[in-house]
Amino acid sequence: MIVTAPAKINLTLSIIGKRPDGYHALESVMQQLSLSDTITIEEADDIDFTCADAGLLGENNLVVRAARLLQSQCPTKRGARLHLEKHIPIQAGLGGGSSDAATVLAALNEFWEVRLPFDTLMQLAAQLGSDVPFFLNAPTGIARGRGEDITPIMHRTVGYVVLAKPAIGLSTPQVYAKLHAPTLSTSKVSHRNHPVTQAMISALQANNLEAVARSLHNDLEGPALAIMPALFPLRERMLEAGCQAVLLSGSGSALFGICPDEATAQHAALDLTNDFPWTWAGPWLIPR
Ligand code: C5P
Q: Which of 30, 130, 175 for mutating ligand 1's site (highest number of atoms within 8 Å of CB)?
């Protein structure tokens, strides 16, 4: 069995406040991309994980943790050989590890014929990380709570994205630690859209990519720029290369740009290879 695990960008990310459990309550419009990792699953007696990048091997990888978590829910213990072909850079804010974990949960649920219902998979996904549940859902969605409460969004806007990542990554806890968010007395989720979220949903549903570009917002960008000021000139370079708007994805360190068409995106990515060690251009995924 071969499955793909898509990357994501955060078109908006609004921090509501700091919860009693230490996590931040947020609201984010998340969008999956055609950039993806590939995971190959084969029969085996035990859980066996391979990857060409030796730095990603070991029990701590979310692929292994997802497999072991699902295995703990199986009445009869089965194994699997899991091979990860990595295309999504790590410490980039592109959700690669989270997507790998969600994809393994969903794929092994089929491969081992566990047949856990969707809600149970969502709960297991949330145990693995705040961003994991989103990847069990449609390509576009609103994430609330600490990220695990997902509302899918339907839209038909075709978007072309340029990604560019500096050599150094950013650690999510470090970026969150730089935020000065108000303290909340409850972790309860409000389902009334934040104005930033509403503007983005309206832009997507109006099929207006220019309005999408105008409505980009990320509360983690300020803290990330404070930790890594080198991102300022890089953002300028992406605008010069033809992006309509540029934003940090999640907690970074990758920046994404929105382009009016595929040719501009491809040209910009090529142009940016002098300034960034890693670039990518392509369309995002459209909900069906
Ligand atoms: O859930 P996950 O393990 O991916 O989160 C990593 C870290 O990011 C947390 O330990 C926390 O420091 C920060 N975080 C947060 N609020 C969120 C999500 C993550 O403070 N909603």
A: 130
Asked whether the beta carbons of 65 and 47 are under 8 A apart, the reply is no
Dihedral (C-alpha) 54, 59, 64, 66: value to the nearest 10 degrees?
Answer: -140
- Residue 172: φ, ψ to 5°: -55, -50
Largest CA distance in the chain: 57
Q: Does this model's pTM top 0.90?
A: yes
Query: Considering only CA atoms, which of 14, 222, 224, 5 is closest in space to residue 104?
Result: 5
CA atoms within 13 A on the CB side of 147: 21
d(CA 225, ligand 1 centre) in Å: 18
**How does pLDDT run across 116-156, given as a tens digit for each residue?**
999 999 999 999 999 999 999 999 999 999 999 999 999 99
